[in-house]
Amino acid sequence: xxxxxxxxxxxxxxxxxxxxxxxxxxxxxxxxxxxxxxxxxxxxxxxxxxxxxxxxxxxxxxxxxxxxxxxxxxxxxxxxxxxxxxxxxxxxxxxxxxxxxxxxxxxxxxxxxxxxxxxxxxxxxxxxxxxxxxxxxxxxxxxxxxxxxxxxxxxxxxxxxxxxxxxxxxxxxxxxxxxxxxxxxxxxxxxxxxxxxxxxxxxxxxxxxxxxxxxxxxxxxxxxxxxxxxxxxxxxxxxxxxxxxxxxxxxxxxxxxxxxxxxxxxxxxxxxxxxxxxxxxxxxxxxxxxxxxxxxxxxxxxxxxxxxxxxxxxxxxxxxxxxxxxxxxxxxxxxxxxxxxxxxxxxxxxxxxxxxxxxxxxxxxxxxxxxxxxxxxxxxxxxxxxxxxxxxxxxxxxxxxxxxxx
Amino acid sequence: xxxxxxxxxxxxxxxxxxxxxxxxxxxxxxxxxxxxxxxxxxxxxxxxxxxxxxxxxxxxxxxxxxxxxxxxxxxxxxxxxxxxxxxxxxxxxxxxxxxxxxxxxxxxxxxxxxxxxxxxxxxxxxxxxxxxxxxxxxxxxxxxxxxxxxxxxxxxxxxxxxxxxxxxxxxxxxxxxxxxxxxxxxxxxxxxxxxxxxxxxxxxxxxxxxx
Lengths: 406, 211
Prior knowledge:
Chain A is mainly alpha-helical. In chain A, 58% of the residues lie in helices and 6% in strands.
């Protein structure tokens, strides 16, 4: 028997897993899109009591049990139903307790054990549903009924939630712990279930519900305030539309000006610097140092030149004229090549009676040598004559240079 | 360094509104009775007194006794206030309608400029409304594009102290206690002039429903 039950349960859960997409779609949209899924699958799910058809014309929907399971596990805020039927649960608890006690009395222990399991299940179910109801209530309060847009809708939702809270509170009054404790008698297990477990959850739920009720009233007040403000603004605009020349009486002229319109003008200006205060000298210096002095140049007005025609037909070729000193150096180099004899720069200078500054001449010769490319440099040797500085080592004064062929 | 008392006093004398959003520390300071009592003689010396509006949510300095000069200031202020009412109320309604939650702007409400802008851009009626609002002398926008109009309106509101921008790099604005002060003024005008504005609005809404 129990083996069959396990198998059937496994089959159901497998079906749920296999068709999770279909079930979630049905959960979100409210009904199944029958064209998309095969008829066989749908029939199987109907047979497993996952889906049902409320009446022949309507589409397939999820069974309430599956929906509740999903809402509970997903903590979906759309879950707005609150199971407040505590009275019925309590009655069934009492009945089960009677069964259990009777079974014990007649020493039918197997039967008693079964009743006990059943009773435990019921008690925990009841406490869970209580906790769940409170949780649902709070999740709705916490996001301030964010799932509806307008303030009016929020107010309606708030009223619904309030009625549910008061319903829950009246249901909680069904708990009569004196009766329950009498019922449990001296049986330890029964007392544990009926008195301890229930009472703990009861007090917790009652406490939280009281908080929820206060918060709901608070929220309702705020929503009403919002509504009032919106009306005030819209009413004012409407009024101004109907009577564009409306102006409120001049309240500032009344003998007692209303507080709202009595607003003093600003009084404090900036303070000034006290240069005689020695204590602040440092700060003053810093301020002055940080000042940027802006000097504006007088704008020089350039008279706009009149446009001239630019002749673009012919461009003169540009030739780089060499300086005379450069030409002289070149001649010196050629002279050395022609004669094949080394010749000092100053000797050549004297021979040709050149007119440049002798120092510039020597520099130019060195420059001319350095300016030759590597290959041409190979042909020449440059020798310097001069003396070292008498005082400072490493300094060498050049008097003359001699250029020769290698 | 100025003490907290000095800081609060100078804020009040500068004609600022102190609320939880603009300056929480100063607001908490003023919430304590003994601190407020300590400030009062200083304010009285300058013919001012500490006043609160919107159930103690906003503090500001009011004149203690009213002479001719003070009356002149108040009258000017009153003129400004009444001329600013329509643009401000229209702006409040626009922001409320354009925000998804349909919640009125109250102290501490966050307004994300980018979100608001995209909603207004997508809805021609709102864009038209914004254009109208931005043309009021209070906001004085000359911009032809929506972006410029919206930015100008928010800049002006921040200057006037109705909004603050807690983070300069982010386009998120918070409504300050001055908004509450504005609601209070509207309520006061409504009651004093017996306009029954709420009833008018309700009647208009129910007529709309009938149509």
